[in-house]
Amino acid sequence: MKAIFLSGVGLFVMLLTLTGCDSLVQDVDSKNLPVVSRKLVVHSYISPQDTVLTVIVTEPRAVLGGQASQDYYGTPVTNATVELSDGTRPVRLVYSAYDRLYRATPQALPIRAGTTYTLTIAAPGYPTATSQCTVPAVVLPSQISADSVTETNFYDRLLYRARLDWQDPAGQTNYYRVSGVGLALVKVSYAPRPNAPLRDTSYVVSTSLGFASTTLLSDDNRDGGAFSSVRGTVWKGAFPYTPQTIDMRLDLNHIDVNYYRYQEALERQRSVGDNPFAEPVLIPSNIQNGLGCFGAYTKSSLTVKIK
């Protein structure tokens, strides 16, 4: 009887708890909900060093529920009118079904440091989205240094490492992002056709460098100071065959504030992940009547030979 009594008490408490929770749930009249128009999602980063001008335009995605798109940025909007202008000359970007984005050649509208560009996007069913950004000046790195280290983690492997140094221009706010690649020249033999003599050919294989921490930097409280990047690393085994030569190239990207704030927020959001106890990260946008980022950067590079 005692066990039955305790079970009855537990059941009563559980029903009381569920009833209390149910009382906290209230239906909200849909007429009282704010009306939010659909907005285009835009991603574009322009640079004088680019070989093509690109703009990605996608549909907005629901925060909760729904079927996730298989595209990294989302479902592309293919019927938009995308125009980029330097204030005097506009150029129309054309949608590429292969690349799933809008593109134009830099010859149609050269990108120059110090110039402000305007992006305008119109698509049926959406308000016209606009944005502006100014291309920052080139900042030249002063040197690149490299070394190698053997890492032991169940087995030994050789890592090549490199870092970049530069001087921050004083009297202005600057933002940076460092990136890099490992470049290996490999030689292989192949037969151009069955039973034909082997031929030797060489080609360059590239692989992105890994960085242990963020490569986004600001000169806040360091105006005019000397900067060093975190080390970029590449594993020797990342290259196929036996490389004849190995180079490491580090790129100093001088980015505008739009680029910096958007990417910095994305990095913080990724670090939070699905942690329910973490503070939500608000992603900024400089797209009027839209979402996303329209930013600019200039790039300068240094290369060091490893092998």
From TrEMBL:
This is DUF4249 domain-containing protein. It comes from the Bacteria. InterPro entries: DUF4249. The lineage of its organism: Bacteria, Pseudomonadati, Bacteroidota, Cytophagia, Cytophagales. Pfam families: DUF4249.
